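Supplementary Methods S3. Complex input for the flavin-adenine dinucleotide-bound model.
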Amino acid sequence: MDLNFTPEEEAFRQEVRDFFKENLPDDIRDAVRQGGELTKETMERYHAILNKKGWLATTWPKEYGGPGWGPVERHIFDEESCAAYAPRIVPFGLSMLGPVLQKFGSQEQKDYYLPRILNGDDWWCQGYSEPGAGSDLASLKTRAVRDGDEWVINGQKTWTTLGQHADWIFCLVRTDPDVKQQEGISFILVDMSTPGVEVRPIKLIEGGHEVNEVFFTDVRVPYKNLVGEENKGWTIAKYLLTHERTGIAGVGFSMLELEEVKALAKKVIRNGKPLSEDPLFAARVAQAEIDLEAMKLTNLRMLFTAQKNGAPGPETSILKIKGTVINQELKDLGRRALGPNAAPFPKSLAGTNLDVAPDGHANNAARYFNNRKTSIFGGSNEIQRNILTKTMLGL
Ligand SMILES: Cc1cc2nc3c(=O)[nH]c(=O)nc-3n(C[C@H](O)[C@H](O)[C@H](O)COP(=O)(O)OP(=O)(O)OC[C@H]3O[C@@H](n4cnc5c(N)ncnc54)[C@H](O)[C@@H]3O)c2cc1C
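Predicted complex, serialized as structure tokens:
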């Protein structure tokens, strides 16, 4: 196994680096550095910049308008986009629904929806979780009943990320309540402007509005909005989740944050000397760095497997756990370094020698609290551990 990048891959890395240097607008870069919520307009503008270059749908093959990259190119792109303080690509249409339609959608669905996702005509959100169905997703209850050429949908989804911006939602719904849970689920596309769809915000601990509840009351949807076969939605759901977890480790973001924490610890004076010289703090930073280096190697091993076998193995669960734990530790170190100045008001740093907002420390506490989500979404870390004990340890 050769974990070094080839000369072609290094050349590609340079191309990506140059692209971001020349094309990422300063205001978008600054907004990402500040760490707050990005507006819909910012996210759409960023998508359009990538789309013009043909780099927006990083997982799509060329025939559907993607760049046709393999896992290594995608990894290099992720690292360089993080290093450039580019936003994360909003995944719902591009990394989740797109691959699903390409594999399970009818020709009509592919022809209609895929170009609209690329052009940014439709903003998608994900309607999987329900108040009683998160980890145990198959117990979902939102009901779709066929009525002639239509479905009639009743029920509730929750934690719907960025649903307040969405034009469409892809939903898992129960279409047969009388069979084994997994066998009575279908995957249906719903236009959010349909009468009976109601979006209610969920306010997060740091004050942000990122997730929502979505209610369906007698929502009538054309029958043809079903993707794949009726009652076979569970297979689609699982296929989509493998795409959701890819790249969730966020190696690039953690590399950047480690450097930020180190720089911050040199500036903060605690007990008369820089915090970086405090043995307890320095040991935590060192441990985070060691863990991150180990994860980078696991990530490269996963890329090698994916390149060779066409799909990543259960290592994605290791990456999901380690990636989120390391990132949460880095955010905790940043918050502890700032102490009371980490209050969720950037202005609290003004006038101190820690007024380093452009370098990413503003909103520090807010980012810390918001980031608790990463060990929950995309399948909680406990669930990932269950997957590992079954698939790798055979327990
Ligand atoms: C910020 C955020 C954004 C999200 N965005 C979306 C979205 O856009 N669309 C969407 O559909 N969903 C979304 N989710 C939902 C997410 O997928 C669920 O929160 C997640 O699957 C966990 O489900 P739950 O919240 O119902 O917790 P539960 O399943 O109730 O779990 C509660 C706790 O019990 C643990 N637990 C549960 N079962 C087991 C088990 N068998 N063994 C060991 N431990 C277990 C869990 O790990 C967790 O700690 C989002 C969640 C968050 C926090």
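The radius of gyration is 22 Å. Confidence is low (pLDDT under 50) at residues 355-359.
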